[in-house]
UniProtKB/TrEMBL annotation:
Gene: LOC121227986
Keyword Cell membrane: yes
Region of interest (Disordered), residue spans: 352-373
Statement: the UniProt record of this protein carries the keyword Membrane: yes
Name of protein: Receptor-like protein 9DC3
Biased composition (Basic residues): 354-373
Length: 373
C-alpha cells in the first residue's frame, strides 16, 4: 500500500467513517470516494499524503466543519466536498501566514450548510487561479504517469456543474478553474477581491443569502465563461463592465433585488429572459418591461441642487425692484412739491380748470334760453 498513488472507490455503498489512519509516507495523489454513504468527521491524518492533488469526497454524509488544515497540502489542486452535511463558517482562526490552497484550481463546497461571509482569505491565496502562466506544467489534463513504464498516463475524472448542467468529466483540463459555493447559507457581500481571480472559468454563488451590490471587480474576470449569482438578495444595478468579458456565455442573476437597465451589447444580447427573471426592478431587453427615459430638466428651470427654480428667483427680483421703484418715485415727488411748484404742472392744472369753467357757463346759457322760449 505504500506505493499506492491512485484510489478511486466512487459510486459504491461504503458506509461508516473514512479510515482515520493514513500512514506516514502515503503516496496518494488522487483519492476519490464520491457517491458513497460515508459519514462522521474527516481525519487530519490525510495530511500524511503530502502529494495529494485531487480529493473528492462529494455526495456522502460527512458531518463536520470545514477542514481548514487541508490548506496545508502543498500539491492540492482539486477539492470537492459538495452534497454533504458540512456546516459552520469558513473563517480560519489560524495564522494568516500559514499556506492555504495556493495551488487549488477547483474548489467545490456546494450543497452543504456552510454559513458566515465568503472566505476572503482563501480567495486571496488561490494563486493558481490568479496566475497559472508559469506553473511549469506542459500537461493538458491532470493525471498520473504509469510508474512501471513511465510512458502511459492516467487521467483524473470528476463530476461538476457547468453552466447549470451536471457533467461527468473523464478528464480534468489543467486550465479549468472553478469555484462553486452554491446552495449554502453564506451571508454578506461578494468581496471585491473576487476580481483578482483573472483565470477563473466558472463562478457559482447561487442559492445563498448574499446581499449588497455585484462588485464591478467581477468585470476583471477576463477568462470567465459562466457566472451564476441567482437566488440571493443582491441589489443595485448590473455592472456595465460585465459586457466586456469576452468569453462569458452563461449568466444567471435571477431571483434577486436588482434594478435599472440591463447591460446591453456583445454577448449580453444572447442571454434570455430566464437570466433575469425575479428582479422586478430590471428593465430593457430581453425582459418585457421597458425602461422609462427621464429627460433632464432645462438648466434655466432647475438649479443644480434642484431645490428652487431660477424662474421663481427671477420673479422675486422683479417684485423687489418694482416695490423699490414706487417708494423712490413717491419720495422724489414729495420732495419736489415741498421745494417748488413745477411750472408745467401748474399750467396744466389751470388750463384744465379754465376749460371746465367755460363748459359750465355755456351749458347754463343754453338752459336759460330754453326756459324763456
Amino acid at each position: 500500500m505504500e506505493s499506492l498513488e491512485f484510489l478511486n472507490l466512487k459510486k459504491n455503498k461504503f458506509y461508516g467513517t473514512i479510515p482515520p489512519t493514513f500512514a506516514k509516507g502515503c503516496r496518494l495523489t488522487n483519492l476519490n470516494l464520491n457517491g458513497n454513504l460515508l459519514g462522521g468527521p474527516l481525519t487530519p491524518s490525510i495530511l500524511n499524503c503530502r502529494g495529494l492533488e485531487v480529493l473528492d469526497l462529494g455526495n456522502n454524509k460527512i458531518n463536520d466543519t470545514f477542514p481548514h488544515w487541508l490548506g496545508s497540502l502543498p500539491q492540492l489542486q482539486v477539492l470537492v466536498l459538495k452534497s454533504n452535511q458540512m456546516h459552520g463558517s469558513l473563517h480560519d482562526h489560524s495564522s494568516k501566514f500559514s499556506p492555504c490552497f495556493s495551488k487549488i484550481q477547483i474548489f467545490d463546497l456546494s450543497s452543504n450548510y456552510f454559513s458566515g461571509p465568503l472566505p476572503v482569505r482563501y480567495i486571496n491565496n488561490f494563486k493558481a487561479i490568479i496566475n497559472l502562466k508559469k506553473n511549469g506544467s506542459a500537461r493538458s489534463y491532470m493525471g498520473l504517469k504509469y510508474a512501471s513504464t513511465n510512458s502511459g498516463f492516467y487521467t483524473y475524472s470528476i463530476g461538476i456543474v457547468t453552466k447549470g448542467t451536471y457533467m461527468e468529466l473523464e478528464k480534468i483540463c489543467t486550465m479549468w478553474m472553478i469555484i462553486d459555493l452554491s446552495n449554502n447559507q453564506f451571508v454578506g457581500e461578494i468581496p471585491k477581491v473576487i476580481g483578482k481571480l483573472n483565470l477563473l472559468k466558472g463562478l457559482n454563488l447561487s442559492h445563498n443569502n448574499l446581499n449588497g451590490r455585484i462588485p464591478t471587480s467581477v468585470g476583471n474576470l477576463t477568462s470567465l465563461e459562466w457566472l451564476d449569482l441567482s437566488s440571493n438578495r443582491l441589489s443595485g444595478t448590473i455592472p456595465n463592465k460585465l459586457a466586456d468579458l469576452p468569453f462569458l456565455s452563461s449568466l444567471n442573476v435571477s431571483e434577486n433585488q436588482l434594478h435599472g437597465q440591463i447591460t446591453q451589447g456583445k454577448q449580453f444580447n444572447t442571454f434570455g429572459n430566464d437570466s433575469y427573471e425575479g428582479n422586478k426592478g430590471l428593465c430593457g431587453f430581453p425582459v418585457s418591461k421597458g425602461c422609462k427615459i427621464i429627460e433632464p430638466a432645462p438648466p434655466n428651470v432647475l438649479e443644480k441642487n434642484g431645490s428652487k427654480s431660477n424662474i421663481a428667483f427671477g420673479w422675486k427680483v422683479v417684485l423687489i425692484g418694482y416695490g423699490c421703484g414706487i417708494v423712490l418715485g413717491m419720495s422724489v415727488g414729495y420732495a419736489v412739491f415741498q421745494t417748488c411748484k413745477p411750472e408745467w404742472l401748474v399750467n396744466l392744472v389751470e388750463n384744465q380748470h379754465e376749460k371746465r369753467r367755460r363748459r359750465k357757463s355755456k351749458n347754463g346759457n343754453r338752459s336759460n334760453r330754453r326756459s324763456r322760449a
